[in-house]
């Protein structure tokens, strides 16, 4: 029997109130700094850079932008440049040099409507191949951009003629383990999850989880697809084992009723891909561990391989706020250090202890 003290603890290290709505927050790689993205009450966008110093978050830079900023990623930048790519309410994709964030170093009108979600790969030494950014929008399209190529996307996944356009809420890269292979997963407001194979430019798999998909993330971007977590409205999340794809049954999955409200986000621990944190609509965070089954695949009656899902164990949970925690980011450098923001107009730096022991 493990004692409560041997379990990971979630400690709110710093809490900072902001004078704007914050939508996304990200650690700046190889630093004790993080970026907050959002919008001022007057309808303009804001980007703030904070540094964690002596137990406080000190504001070191603030820039105002014409449009509210919804999401950001460092995934397609080099560790030398550490440029952040952002998506805004007007459908623009911008890349900013945080040393001089007044003018974007790259800008493109990516979508007709708000960019809900953004992810990057091929930068920071994570994932082989070109540096690419994927954006998902309310206009129903998912587009992949190479920042070295101006104006037009390298891939555009949009509904067929006559198909209903669904609001794309979340996108994520994965399967980037060599120079050729790469996948994008997208989640939509009607519960659809689609996996696009960028190598073959095809839809590799799709499913529906009955509720709007708020977040998707592979446990690692730079390995042969292993696991995918999808979070949804109504408090559920699903873990798919992505190693074995059955021609008709698809991927095996386990689902968990995690929160009493929407699960806004999922983020895997960079130092251990079997541990992940979910952020909920009631202001709570849950830390989970995935346990693999004894065998990850078995033969079905036709002799084909079918995946076997594992189980999910709750390690710890905490309630931080009465408002939804809408963004969450683990530090890539310090295990257990994490930053999150909520609709209570606050940003919090958290420390999750004992993660190396679970």
Automatic annotation (TrEMBL):
Q: Which GO terms describe its biological process?
A: apoptotic process
Q: Does the keyword Chaperone apply?
A: no
Keywords annotated in UniProt = Apoptosis, Cytoplasm, Repeat, WD repeat
Listed GO cellular component terms?
dynein axonemal particle
Return any one Pfam family short name: WD40
Q: What is its main location?
A: other
Superkingdom of source: Eukaryota
Q: Which residues form the signal peptide?
A: none
WD repeat ranges per the UniProt record:
133-146
Compartment(s) where it occurs, according to its Swiss-Prot or TrEMBL record: Dynein axonemal particle
Database matches in SMART domains: WD40
Where, if anywhere, are coiled coils annotated? Answer: none
Function recorded in the entry: Key assembly factor specifically required for the stability of axonemal dynein heavy chains in cytoplasm.
Q: What is this protein called?
A: Dynein axonemal assembly factor 10
What is the species listed in this Swiss-Prot or TrEMBL entry? Seriola lalandi dorsalis
List the taxonomic lineage: Eukaryota, Metazoa, Chordata, Craniata, Vertebrata
């Amino acid at each position: 029997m493990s004692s409560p003290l041997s379990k990971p603890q979630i400690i709110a290290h710093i809490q900072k109130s902001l004078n704007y709505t914050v939508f996304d927050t990200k650690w700046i790689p190889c630093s004790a700094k993080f970026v907050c993205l959002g919008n001022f009450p007057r309808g303009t966008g804001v980007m703030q850079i904070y540094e964690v110093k002596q137990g406080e978050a000190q504001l070191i830079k603030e820039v105002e932008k014409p449009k509210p900023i919804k999401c950001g990623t460092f995934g397609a930048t080099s560790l030398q440049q550490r440029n952040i790519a952002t998506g805004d309410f007007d459908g623009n994709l911008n890349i900013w040099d945080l040393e001089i964030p007044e003018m974007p170093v790259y800008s493109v009108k990516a979508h007709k409507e708000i960019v809900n979600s953004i992810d990057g790969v091929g930068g920071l030494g994570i994932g082989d191949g070109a540096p690419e950014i994927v954006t998902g929008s309310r206009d129903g399209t998912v587009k992949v951009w190479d920042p070295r190529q101006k104006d037009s996307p390298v891939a555009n996944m949009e509904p067929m003629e006559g198909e209903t356009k669904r609001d794309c809420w979340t996108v994520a890269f994965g399967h980037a383990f060599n120079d050729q292979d790469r996948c994008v997963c997208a989640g939509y407001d009607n519960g659809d999850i689609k996996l696009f194979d960028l190598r073959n430019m095809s839809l590799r798999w799709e499913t529906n989880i009955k509720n709007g998909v708020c977040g998707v993330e592979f446990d690692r971007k730079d390995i042969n697809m292993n696991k995918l977590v999808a979070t949804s409205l109504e408090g559920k999340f699903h873990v798919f084992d992505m190693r074995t794809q059955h021609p008709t049954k698809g991927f095996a999955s386990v689902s968990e009723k995690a929160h009493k409200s929407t699960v806004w986000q999922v983020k895997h621990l960079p130092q251990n891909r079997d541990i992940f944190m979910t952020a909920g609509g009631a202001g709570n965070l849950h830390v989970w561990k995935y346990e693999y089954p004894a065998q990850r695949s078995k033969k079905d009656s036709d002799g084909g391989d079918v995946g076997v899902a594992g189980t999910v164990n709750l390690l710890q949970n905490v309630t931080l706020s009465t408002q939804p925690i809408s963004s969450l980011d683990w530090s890539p450098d310090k295990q257990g250090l994490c930053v999150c923001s909520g609709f209570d107009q606050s940003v919090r730096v958290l420390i999750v202890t004992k993660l190396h022991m679970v």
